[in-house]
Amino acid sequence: MKPAAFAYLAPTTLGEALAMLDGVQDDGKVLAGGQSLVPAMNFRLARPATLVDLNGLSELDHVSGDSDRGVVIGALVRHAAFHAPPFEGPLAELLAKVVRDIAHYPIRQRGTFGGSLAHADPASEWCLVAATLGATMHLASVAGTRTVAAADFFRGTFTTALAPNEILVRVDLPPLPAGWRTGFYEFSRRKGDFALAMALATLQIDGGAIRAVRLGVGGVSDRPRRLETVEAFLAGKPPTPATFAEAAELARGAVAVTADIHASEAYRSDLLGTVVRRALAEAAA
Question: Quick check: 234 and 214 in contact, CB under 8 A?
Fold first, then answer.
């Protein structure tokens, strides 16, 4: 199929883009990488009257910072930028792990970091990264800018805190300096398919015990979730298979998983425990 007719706007500055989007409001859509929006338009699941194309806004295509200071990622940064991140440290290693499970190589060349977050697919790897690490979203409109914590940004399947006239312009990831260990595990039926369940873990281990931890899961409910109750359980425990198996069972009880045509509730709940256990084991190793 082909998309319904639409108007196409191509701003060259952020100010122009914000003015254009403000003029169309609910009838407009922002186009970044287009790897989700364009297929939806081709199937006429999405019928925006106007597209505001951000690809002329080079000011949104940048990565700065490092693992020690935190990283600023512009909304137009392509997934492929993290195949070999432009900085070093645990945060860079984590992003490089995660990006390998995002769709397929051609899609990673066009799809954008900000577009993935704004789309808010529950199976999005970058959404899980943002929610688990506690990212800060920077939103802009003609009225000015505001920041929203990742925990408040994702509100459900394909639903975020973005207003119709706002653009996600950048994302701040907090520091993850030397000494942190990272693990990521995703299960999908085939490489590149949408995740049926995935987990991300970051650990600090000292003296044979877990001293600090962040743990999140995605692809199992309507939004990515940080599992703070499981984190509290893990703090002070030894990083052993028995500890991680118990944490996995706690995670299963902490999340109300959703069923769909790809997985029953029982199957996805079992997968949830598996991905949590494996992500933790990878981080500990």
Answer: no
Cβ atoms of 110 and 81 within 8 Å: the answer is no
Residue 227 in contact with residue 216, Cβ under 8 Å? yes
SS3 of 155, please? strand
pTM over 0.90: yes
Q: What is the pLDDT of residue 9?
A: 97
DSSP 112: B
Per the CB < 8 A criterion, the answer to whether 191 and 103 are in contact is no
Percent of the chain whose predicted confidence (pLDDT) is above 70: 100
Q: 75, 112 in Cβ contact below 8 A?
A: yes
pLDDT of 91 higher than 80? yes
Taking residues 90-101, what's their average pLDDT?
A: 97
Q: What is the pLDDT of residues 200-251, one digit of tens each?
A: 999 999 999 999 999 999 999 999 999 999 999 999 999 999 999 999 999 9
Q: Which two tokens stand for residue 131?
A: 């929610």
Tokens standing for residue 62:
């940048």
- 254: helix, coil or strand? helix
If you count them, how many residues does the chain have? Answer: 285
208 CB burial (10 A radius; 0-12, 13-18, 19+): exposed
Yes or no: say if 103 and 35 are a contact pair by the CB < 8 Å rule: yes
The structural domains of the chain, ordered by start, are 7-53 (3.30.43.10), 66-173 (3.30.465.10), 180-284 (3.30.390.50)
DSSP 3: P
Instruction: Quote the tokens at residue 155.
Output: 């509100």
What would the two tokens of residue 105 be?
A: 């190589």
* Each residue's pLDDT tens digit, 19-78: 999 999 789 999 999 999 999 999 999 999 999 999 999 999 999 999 999 999 999 999
Tokens 């003029």 label which residue? 23
